[in-house]
Amino acid sequence: MHRGKGMKFVGDSRIPAKKTSYIPKDYSEYPGKTEAFWPNFLLKEWMVGAVFLIGYLILTVAHPSPLERVADPTDTSYIPLPDWYFLFLYQLLKYKYASGDFTLVGALIIPGVAFTALLLAPWLDKGPERRPSKRPITVSIMLLAVISVIYLTWESVVTHDWEKAAAQGEIKEEVEFDKEAEGYQIYSEQSCVQCHGENLEGGVGPGLAGTGLSAEEIADIAVNGLPPGMPPNAFEGSDEELQKLAEFIASLE
């Protein structure tokens, strides 16, 4: 009997006969299809980034951000407007069942439900399909969210009074006057400050600098009012105080 007669060798298919190298091929083996990261690709990225940066800087110089006057906490007539990406929530809070007694619904519950639905969308539809028609749940949730945001944003833009908003935020030159003057002391003691501002710059009522009115005309308005905003008998002082107040306001430029 010869040595090794009747012996069989069984190979394991899980072990490759030759070790394969997992080192990726050099980019030079793909001429015309790839390039070196440094400096070729990185230089292109820097050039594109520089173009966008310069374009953005030119845009900020040509169209600077609109500035408004300094915030005045005593001006209760000012209506703030959020940035454009929050306009849909701003519009939502205008509706009956999302404002007033239902502010909690519009501010927390509705946005919370929408955010939770988008958060759970990947777990509600875990299918391998990539076509939108094959993934109705996630596609429906996303379309509903996008359509709602676009509609509410559009409604907020078209229903907002942009002229009034520009007027209430307009930067006005401050009036120079002596706050120790007797006329201003009378002004600050009356209810005039609530409507015309501490510095007579205006608020609910118009500014009182450069009205072009005489002292007699100002005194008449303080007593008899001026529709629609100025009520009669707004001044509650003596005739002498009224005269000093009217002369003080008439002297402002």
From TrEMBL:
GO cellular component assignments: membrane
Record has Lipid biosynthesis as a keyword: no
Membrane topology reported for the UniProt record: Multi-pass membrane protein
SUPFAM superfamilies: a domain/subunit of cytochrome bc1 complex (Ubiquinol-cytochrome c reductase), Cytochrome c
Localisation: Membrane
Keywords tagged on the record: Electron transport, Heme, Iron, Membrane, Metal-binding, Transmembrane, Transmembrane helix, Transport
Top-level lineage group: Bacteria
Domain Cytochrome b/b6 C-terminal region profile: from-to ranges: 27-154
GO molecular function: electron transfer activity; heme binding; iron ion binding; oxidoreductase activity
Cytochrome c domain boundaries: 178-253
Pfam families the UniProt entry points to: Cytochrom_B_C, Cytochrome_CBB3
Binding site for heme c: 192, 195-196
Parts of the chain that traverse the membrane: 46-63, 102-124, 136-154
Main location: membrane
InterPro entries, per the entry: Cyt_b/b6_C (IPR005798), Cyt_b/b6_C_sf (IPR036150), Cyt_c-like_dom (IPR009056), Cyt_c-like_dom_sf (IPR036909), Cytb/b6-like_sf (IPR027387), Cytochrome_c550/c551-like (IPR051811), MenaQ_cyt_c_Rdtase_cyt_b/c-su (IPR012049)
Functional summary from the UniProt entry: Component of the menaquinol:cytochrome c reductase complex.
Subunit note: The main subunits of the menaquinol:cytochrome c complex are a Rieske-type iron-sulfur protein (QcrA), a cytochrome b (QcrB) and a cytochrome c (QcrC).
Family as reported in the entry's similarity comment: Belongs to the cytochrome b family.
Protein name listed in UniProt: Menaquinol:cytochrome c reductase cytochrome c subunit
